[in-house]
Amino acid sequence: MRATKKIKARHSLASVQKGWEAFQKMSGMRHIANDKDYEEVVALADALVDIGAMDEKHASHSLFAVLADLIYAYDQRNYRQADVHGVDLLRFLMEQHDLRQNQLPEIGTQSVVSEILAGKRDLTVTHIRGLSERFGLSPAVFF
Q1: CATH number at residue 136
Q2: Containing domain of residue 1, as a range?
Q3: Is 36 in the same domain as 77?
Q4: Which of 24, 35, 60, 112 could lock onto 108 through a cystine, CB 3.0 to 4.6 A?
Q5: Helices in 28-139 by DSSP H: which ranges?
Q6: DSSP 97
Q7: In 10 A of CB 142, how many CB atoms?
Q8: Strand, helix or coil for residue 85
Q9: What is the tally of structural domains in the chain?
């Protein structure tokens, strides 16, 4: 019985391989082995974004999700990001939103913000909750 299943699997595999080769030629989707592959897969993902495939109800959403996973895996292998600490993120957000220390009521007074930026104080859960709501970010990014 097991031998029969292997024979059937081989026949199915041959069909899958033919279909996969045709699909790769037609779509450009494949394992990302180098920067050229990366650029082609990113272009395909961008085209899918343009037609609305990020929406989970879109017919091509599953294809977009697979491409996004391939892109993410390649990025993780080749472009490791340094860990960003909550204070570094706070500095970045302040710069991007052109904010001064006295414009962060989620943290408190200017002196409290200054102490946090100087490393003399840590962000509290209350600070993080307020900042994540203000900037539309997950609280996890501050930890």
Answers
A1: 1.10.260.40
A2: 1-26
A3: yes
A4: 112
A5: 35-50, 61-78, 86-96, 110-117, 125-135
A6: T
A7: 22
A8: coil
A9: 3
Residue 71 · residue 45 · CB < 8 Å: yes
pLDDT in tens, 83-140: 768 899 999 999 999 999 999 999 999 999 999 999 999 999 999 999 999 998 888 8
Count other Cβ atoms within 10 Å, centred on residue 137: 14
66 plus 47 within the same structural domain: yes
Distance in Å from the first CA to the final CA of the chain: 54
DSSP state of 143: -
Taking Cα atoms as reference points, which of 112, 84, 116, 113 lies closest to residue 100? 113
Q: Distance of alpha carbon 88 from its chain centroid, rounded? A: 19
For residue 132 the two structure tokens come to: 């994540």
Q: If DSSP codes are grouped into helix, strand and coil, which group holds residue 66?
A: helix
| Residue type present at position 126 | T
Q: What is the pTM of this model?
A: 0.52
